[in-house]
TrEMBL record:
Keyword Transferase set for record: no
UniProt: substrate binding residues: R10, H11, G12, Q13, T14, E15, W16, N17, R60
Name used for this protein in its record: Phosphoglycerate mutase
SMART domains assigned: PGAM
Pfam families per record: His_Phos_1
Stretch forming the signal peptide: none
Active site residues per record: H11, E84
Keywords: Glycolysis, Isomerase
InterPro entries reported in the protein's UniProt record: His_Pase_superF_clade-1 (IPR013078), His_PPase_superfam (IPR029033), PG/BPGM_mutase_AS (IPR001345), PGM_Phosphatase (IPR050275)
Any GO MF annotation of the entry: phosphatase activity
Species assigned in the record: Paenibacillus etheri
Length: 205
C-alpha cells in the first residue's frame, strides 16, 4: 500500500453550538466564527495536495467542506454514513435541560459511550461505529496513495479516531474532546498506522 494520508476534521461552530443545543441529525447554520474557523483550516491545508474530499451530508459539514476546498477543482463526495450520531429526542434540546431530565444517560453519552442507550429513534455508539467504520475503510481503499480530507462531526470523529487508536467503545469517553475544525491526521502504509495529529487547533487565530 502506498502512503495514504487522512485529514479529518469537525465542522465549524454553529448557531446551536453557541446555544448549547444538541444537533445530531438535525442542523443549524455555521456562525461567523464557524466560517472563520474553516477559513483558518483552509489556509493551513493550502499546501497539501488533496486528492479527494468527503463530507457528511449535514449542511454544516458540507458548508465547512466547501470553505476548506479553497480553489481546488475537486468535487465534494457526500456520505450520509459520516453524519453525527442520531440523538433522538435530544436533538434541538439545550444540554442543561437534557442533563437535568436525563442525568444518567447524559453522563453515559460523554463518559461511558458503551452504556449509552438513546431515546428513540436514536443510535447507540455501536450502531454509529458500524455505519462509519466501513465507510472510512472504503475511503482508504478507494484513495490509496492519496491525501484525503474528511469533514464530519464531534462524536463520529471520536469513534473514527478510537478505531485507529485501537480503543474500545468504553474508552471513547476518555479521549480528548474535538473542537470545531480541529484537525486529525493519520498516515497509513502497509505496516503502520501513524496518528500524526489528534484534535489540533494550532490554526486558530
Amino acid at each position: 500500500m502506498k502512503e495514504t494520508v487522512l485529514f479529518l476534521t469537525r465542522h465549524g461552530q454553529t448557531e446551536w453550538n453557541l446555544q448549547k443545543r444538541m444537533q445530531g441529525h438535525q442542523n443549524s447554520a455555521l456562525t461567523t466564527l464557524g466560517e472563520q474557523q474553516a477559513e483558518w483550516l483552509r489556509d493551513r491545508l493550502e499546501g497539501e495536495n488533496l486528492g479527494a474530499i468527503y463530507s457528511s451530508t449535514s449542511p454544516r459539514a458540507l458548508h465547512t467542506a466547501q470553505i476548506l476546498r479553497g480553489n481546488r477543482s475537486l468535487s465534494i463526495q457526500q456520505q450520509a454514513s459520516l453524519m453525527e450520531i442520531n440523538m433522538g429526542i435530544w436533538e434541538g434540546m439545550n444540554t442543561d435541560q437534557i442533563e437535568q431530565e436525563y442525568p444518567l444517560q447524559y453522563s453515559h453519552f460523554f463518559t461511558r459511550p458503551d452504556l449509552f442507550i438513546p431515546l428513540a429513534p436514536g443510535e447507540t455508539y455501536s450502531q454509529l461505529e458500524q455505519r462509519v467504520t466501513p465507510t472510512i475503510e472504503r475511503i482508504i481503499k478507494d484513495n490509496e496513495g492519496l491525501e484525503v480530507l474528511i469533514v464530519t462531526h464531534r462524536m463520529t470523529l471520536k469513534v473514527i479516531m478510537a478505531h485507529f487508536l485501537n480503543k474500545s467503545l468504553q474508552e471513547i469517553g476518555d479521549l480528548p474532546d474535538i473542537l470545531s475544525t480541529a484537525l486529525c491526521k493519520i498516515t497509513l502504509t502497509d505496516n503502520n498506522t501513524t496518528i500524526n495529529l489528534y484534535g489540533d487547533t494550532s490554526h486558530y487565530q
